[in-house]
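tool_call predict_complex ligand=(2S)-2-hydroxybutanedioic acid
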Amino acid sequence: MFDQVAAAPPDPILGLTAAFRADERPEKINLSVGVYQDETGKTPLLECVRQAEQRLAEAAGTKSYLPISGLADYTAAVAELALGGDHEAIAGKRIAAAQTPGGTGGLRVAADLIHAVLPDATIWLSEPTWPNHPNIFAAAGVPMKTYPYFDAAGDRLDIEGMLAAIGDMPSGDVLLLHGCCHNPTGVDPTPKQWRQIGDAAAAAGVLPLLDFAYQGFADGITEDAVGLRELCRPGAELLVCSSFSKNFSLYRERVGALMAIAPTAEAACAVQSQLNKVIRCNYSNPPAHGAEIVNTILRDAALRQQWEGEVATMRDRINGMRHALVDALAAAGVPGDYSFMTQQRGMFSFSGLTKDQVNRLKEEFAIYIVGSGRINVAGLTPSNVERVAECIGKVVG
Ligand code: LMR
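tool_result ok
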């Protein structure tokens, strides 16, 4: 049977990391996958995580199954982190929620839910978007279309095109938005633009789905929730996929959550039962460890303060490297004005490098970035940034 099977193409992001691992050139630099590294090039185990794990090990609980929707304390803490503890959707019990294996797992559960309960809905993806978004919705059988998002000429949000497209979306469709730190462009709506997007989505009767994977990496933990909190209006419906891979540096623990915010508490109960149904026939119930870590940190004042400081350290380092890259490009005499990179937010910089230039960086200089020209700024360090800038100069020159 299997001798008939054609090979699938490598994943545009994780496939590059596999190629990077296999690359034997000692000078290689991986700026592809969105993983934070400190200035020594190491992905840190956060101190708050280390302390939480120690407490969990000492408490030595059970390894019996979690409920289908995961730890209720954890999903409640996630809702408070995303919306603020005093949000009316929490008080009104309008939230159905599930702990999911990472943000990707949350997106897949959301896609399965949409397919099950909104069978006529099309999901609208920003152009461009994270390359795994279309894979996830295609796998769940949800039809997709795209809306304009990025104005490449002005390196800005194409807010006019985006609002016009939302206005034309059929009522009942789903609008996928990036909660902050848009992947791959690093270009986010301003608070005023979030209001316009919320108004347009409400007027069109579309259901927003927020992919919220970088809370704390742009301006701050509360500040980065401005879009979500704008969209989550009284009685409004919304899907939110949270990921704690980046902001807790818990990548391999696969910690995420899906919230479905319903118009009433009764509707939330029905949605919860549908969520449980799609999870049960997928992975049955989630793994516990990562969620227990996040729950322990968010529920302890001292650990939470420690975490907020560690997120700020990661955010500041990334922003510092944005400026260092722009300075290094100028110092290397690379033609063009790259100052737009300092305005981009989150882990990524959409560099404008072409596929061909990206390919030359890999083949000739062992520098790996994503084919779209997306650079993981969080992989730059004081000791590699000059070489990266010089090599960029060689491929654009
Ligand atoms: C990325 O965009 O690099 C990250 O979200 C990691 C991934 O799974 O693609």
